[in-house]
Batch of 2 targets.
Target 1
Amino acid sequence: MKNLNLQTKAQNTWCPGCFNFVILWAFQEAIRELIKERKLQKKNLVVVTGIGCHGKIYDYLDLNGFYTLHGRVIPTAVGIKLGNPELTVVGFGGDGDTFAEGIAHFLHACNTNPDITMLVHDNQVFALTTGQMTPTTEKEYKGPSSPEGKKTNPINPITLALAAGASFVARSSATHKQHLKRILKEAIVHKGFSFVDILQPCITFHNTAPYLSKRIYDLKKERYNPRNFDLAFQKALEWNYSLDQKSRIPIGIFYKKRRETFEEGFFQLKKPWYQVQRKVNYRKLFHH
Amino acid sequence: MRKTILIGGKAGQGIAMTSTLLGKIFANAGFYVFNYRDYPSLIRGGHNFNVLAISDSPVFSFEKDYDIIVALDQNTINKHKKYLKKQGFILGGKALKSQKLISLDLERILSAMRLPPIFGNNILIGYIAHYFGLPLADVLRVIRREFGKKADVVSKSIKFAYGIKLHHQEKVRKKRKKKYFFSGNEAISLGAIAAGLDIYFAYPMTPATPVLHYLARKQKEYNILVVQPENEIAVINAALGASFAGAKTMVGTSGGGFCLMAEACSLQGMSEVPLVVYLAQRTGPSTGVPTYTTQGDLKFALNIGHGEFPRIVVAPGDAKEAFLRTIEAFYLSQKYRTLVIILGDKHLGESHFSFDEIEKPRVQSRDFLIKNPSPDYKSYKITKDGVSPRTVPGIGPTVRASGYEHDEEGITTEEEFKVSQMTEKRLRKIESIRKEIARLDPIKVYGRGENLIVSWGSTKGAIIDSLKKLKGFRFLQIIYLEPFPWLQVEREIKKAKRVFLVENNATGLLGKVIREQTGILIKRKILKYNGRPFYPSEIIKKIK
Ligand SMILES: Cc1ncc(C[n+]2csc(CCOP(=O)(O)OP(=O)(O)O)c2C)c(N)n1
């Protein structure tokens, strides 16, 4: 089988050397492999993107796509899945997008478990709006909106997702492209809400590359078992997203469990709605 | 014959249920019925009442002038007795006090029948039905239809009530054709079902909530899906997602929830993913008076969302129109890939109306999807009428939707030529829609006369009923408010000698729209903004 072309005509406008290129590559590779393995069909794949540098990935993928609003990737993706349960839906969001503007949707998706994948380009900064702090930015970060330094601690999306009941919680890093590809494949195949927090240095506004590369280690190499919730929580607490000097940073699947998806709870969702035919008798409607 | 019955009591005493059931009984017996519901925002206690207007000629409103007060508590009598007609009477239990009271010993009856207090309502219903000489068998037929398996106990209490000696009996003409009787909210739900609704998304908010409940109950019967997401932002974005994937979707809310949907309405404009919104107005601003009515959101509906994009706003005036116009809303939204706002309010949604017939809708809703798109399909093809043929993901070619400005393929663009080209493509839809709705009666004119009343939405009922007593008046109802049928409106207004604007709001919003669209200033305004609908007599008095 020829390598599937996922390229579009769009001119890429990310900064040269941006780690988004790595995420784009890893995703394309993951898709190609899944298609080869017959776990996915291109025509049934839909990507949903937020607004930010990450969102531009919409233009660089020759796939069905919905370039939605800032913060609204998840509800849009859930809607697409409800609209046609046969589709594979993958959302791309920023950390600002997902954890600031859209955090309510994130927590509810962890809880309700729609069968969608949510990939967060977590560069710990609002990149497209020129470097303001986000909820995952470390304390003391000096940006254009916080010249005296950020006053509060970062949130930890991994513990958040676990506490909210997510059925697939993983972290990877754009600095580790093979790892990323592998995790993306597993996330897309998982039935239920799959969340991958992708650590991503922003070479222009928040370059964590040196920090990350020294501290990241792969959970798989520790023979870590992602079926144990308590252990997952402990592991998630190992690094709290502040750029402290002591911590090591685990990447890999923290937790994974098959449980009923949101759509499986609805008897109506058997096939795409556009194939559903109904005949309505007006008089009968009114029980007249 | 025209009789007005008020039924009042505390929240939780089943006031609305009782009134609606009585309404159904009268409609089944061939009477025209209008049922108004008045309740504060609380769950137990307080004071709720319904008013039933029953007539042998069409009736779409009521007057605060009651023939009968059915009182479930003393408060009802204290509050409403001043509006009881001279010859009127009050019906209620033994404990109540009033010179006009016809008392029934409900406690004794119920304990003898071993029934809980709520069944007292059925005794009252039975008494009223008997009082108007309705055949018992007909009443029991309605009970069976409404209660199914639980009909037996209800029937038993109704039968018992028919055995109570009447203090008097009304002479009414018998046997007329039975009437359709339903609320605006039921009509919108049924209209959506008739139009092929697949998924309804909503977050509870009065007065749109009854649609959520009704459709949720009907999921099995019609194979539809009802989803209640975490907030209105999720509601509308999920609806756009589902619609993109090929489901016919509708969302429902009131002003506050619609505020939260503003950004996604704008996304609809850019992405051209079809969407129907039911906006049920309630008295604002803010939380306002949550369970009362208004027409305060007209400008909001006309302007919601940033940027310039086509939209359709349709305002039904009664329940039958709500049904038919909802079918049109789906048709137009799918055909033109637009946002369609069905603009209703508490008074339209929660009142029941009666009709002789339901006409066939003028359009047949369908999805307008191309099922065999070519491999070079373009999601935003530039066309003469502005409408890009639509397909869905999963069929074959890449399908895109975007809130970012895009080219024909849906790929982002910021190029000056393309930006204006796409803006023009979208805006061309407005004229295409205008042409289409010209044949859907965007306005209606009732009655004859050289003078004109102009209004929109749920004021229709009181205006129609007031026309009977106003000599020389026509009524212009504007149903499609966007694209605004300005030519027809201008023609009607210019023909008229004296023109009155009637609106259920404080600033005459339709008047402002008419001025913007036609240049005509209507100076005579009859406005009401206390959360209550118009009574015909108010309109008549203000005009005279
Ligand atoms: C409702 C809304 N608010 C603000 C913006 C402006 N805005 C565009 S991108 C962005 C931040 C993006 O940050 P993030 O989601 O972290 O993505 P990144 O650019 O870092 O990939 C903001 C605030 C917007 N588009 N919409």
Target 2
Amino acid sequence: MSGFGAALPPADGKPKLPGSLHANRRLSQWLGFSADGRVTIAPGKVELGQGILTTLSQIAADELDVDFARIEVTPAATPDSPDEAVTSGSLSTQDSGGALRHACAAARAIFIEVVAQRTGIPPERIAIVDGTFIGPAGAIGSYWELADQALLETEARPDVQPKAAAARRIAGTSVPRIDLPDKVFGAARFVHDLRLPGMLHARVVRPPARQARLLALRDGALPAGARAVRDGSFLVALAPTEWAAEAAALQLAGWAEWSAEDTLPEAGDLTAWLREAAGRGERSEVIRRGEVVPAAASLRRSFHRPYIAHASVAPSCAVACWQGDTVEVWSHSQGPYNLRADIAKALKTAPDKVLVRHREGAGCYGHNGADDVALDAVLAARAVPGTPVRVLWSRAEELGWSPFSSAMLVDIEATTDAGGRLVGWRSHIVSNGHSSRPGRDPVPTLLAAGMLAEPFPVKPSINPPLAAGGGAPRNGVPLYTIPHLEIDTTRLLEMPIRTSALRGLGATLNVWSIEAMMDELAAAARVDPLDYRLQHLDDARAVAVLQRVAVMCGWRERQKRDGWGLGLGFARYKNTGGYAAVAAEIEARERVFCRRLWIAGDVGEVVNPDGVANQYEGGAIHGTSVALLERVAFDRRRVTSDSWETYPILRFSDVPKVAVELIDRPELPFLGAGEASMAPTIAAIGAAITDALGIRPRALPFTPEQLASAT
Amino acid sequence: MLSLSLNGRPVTLDVPASVSLLQALRGPGGLSGPRFGCGNEQCGSCMVLVDGLPRHACTLPVEAVAGRAVTTVEGLGTPDAPHPLQAAFLAEQAGQCGYCLSGILVSAAALLRRDPDPDEAAIRAALEPHLCRCGSHNRIIRAVQRAAQEARA
Ligand code: FES
Ligand code: FES
């Protein structure tokens, strides 16, 4: 199965190459030199606002020994970019960075060998300074003089050795982001800014209910130049300008007659629905470890979270243009090849009839509407061959129709010995699947595919395999040492609200629920929450981040202040990725405010310290927003939280101050940073609420109404 | 036909009077800086200055700016001659995806013109109309402080 990253072992019998290089072995796919002194790298991973292009450029510059400024990045595009599946799971530095580091080291070795042959100077006596080869008597050529792409038309050798950690000069430093100047000067960098000659604008007409069908469309006159395009229940207005397209879509909406039924559960009792649907779901084992140990006490608790939305600041957007039987699409998808596969399935054509070119969108925190809007654009543009069509979603579509992160429920029973130490852990995690990403199923998962005249079935979403971190059970297995573990998950087989991957996946609930249990068990054992955690950890890196954050926030010296609370949260993302220990300080007034966050992180080798700190801080602020504010609202027919008023996120006045410290381990593998801090932040805020108010919340978000029912 | 001053230059835009300033700027105006986020005065992505004051371009009919001076992020500065705020945002690496920045930069420019030495609360208040989903807020606040300091130095 493609797309779940490098966690799965190679099954192809080829010599192992790092990251995505294993499946994309030709060096010319990854890099090239031009005669004018530039180096082009072509990763298959894409910029999501996380700074990956800068990180990858650093790795390449370092390994090739060229100035950072010489590196240019080609945006990913089918069919030429390496297929790196999806930019997700905090795996990009691992998958793509590992690949590029090795590919560049291999390319460097080839060039040195050629120079050595030509000059008779032994390879070990040739140095490279900013791309120029230096022999004992001075310069003897450069990458650019040799700029022979034929040299790179070869597979990477497995036996080349990238530089030792100590020899790196650029990787490990806070090089400024290469994409930021464009964004600060308002340059046309986003897919939203693409302007192709003759381009038309399009707006989709959305049904009044989930699963509604377009029964009839009354005839009428649209504004000059505007036209309707319809395929089954997919209806879109096309016009030469944005305002004409909007006006036409509004008119069409008035002429459309839909079938609409109640298909969504009662929002008021979501936990009851989750329990009931779980009875019809697919239960599976996450882990069984150790033997049951006799216990002195047990603690049973249930935790819940609602559906949450991606809520990117920009609505999804795409441009498509047909030429003959081929369609070209510009998209902010996380996975150009996977998107290509699903567009081809929806069109019942071959993948090579679809070209997907990545262009940046606004911040992406998982599988949002980017892929869906790409199919919208393809369908809209089919009516006007040779003419590019740009589809821009509205705010209401973005918040109301993108995939959501599933509502979840977890029941936990922890048992302890007479000393209060954990001896057993049983839990059951209930959720819809956390992936309906395109490219992985014979049926396309794109929104419009289920609305066509010949609709594709909408299957319930799945979970990534446990080996890749799992979906609903992600971080559901405590990292703490517990003799007996028995953890199950149930994936719902009905999906009233379409769900998919959002930053952290199941970890958003699992980490908080585990950490809340640890706090309550610590209190029962009369042990400090920090000490209780340390007593149950044998992972030195976990201990190190917890101790570091304790120093940062002054944990040992903390003073009780009325209305204020301090709490801890810890996790190692996916139990194999980046570590984060977070301390949160909250003030409880008419509602809860998070005032300060301290974060200690460990992501192994840090390629760009400022970039990692930025990701950790961004994830923590995202987590604060999820903890305090976010919940998708719906009635029996549709998602109703489709504006910033009804789906509020954290604003400037509410944002906590954040301090981040990273424990750098240059000799250890990169672990990825994008998702490490969010779930522990939620846990820390939950703990701080308990510290301030003496109540133990059991449901997200921590709003006054929900806290009122906590005990 | 509608005439205004756009980033210091007189322009005439061929758009119906009721079209939003945002669509006029991004369409015939040819600009990318002002961005669409919600169309409803709730996110600040579209913020521009009209006669020096921050206005939501997404709901302002273009006819309302006839004969007035509109400044977008492109009008603050250029890579060769950056506005102190643009230089400070780069120095602080204040942004992740950067989609929110065009609007934030113009609001911050209006703030600094009004109050060259804003405290943190004043900066937060001035940026309250703006959403940043990436969590770049603290860096953005530091960048505004840095720009203010450097402008006073
Ligand atoms: S687009 Fe104008 S405030 Fe959101
Ligand atoms: S940097 Fe992405 S929204 Fe602000």
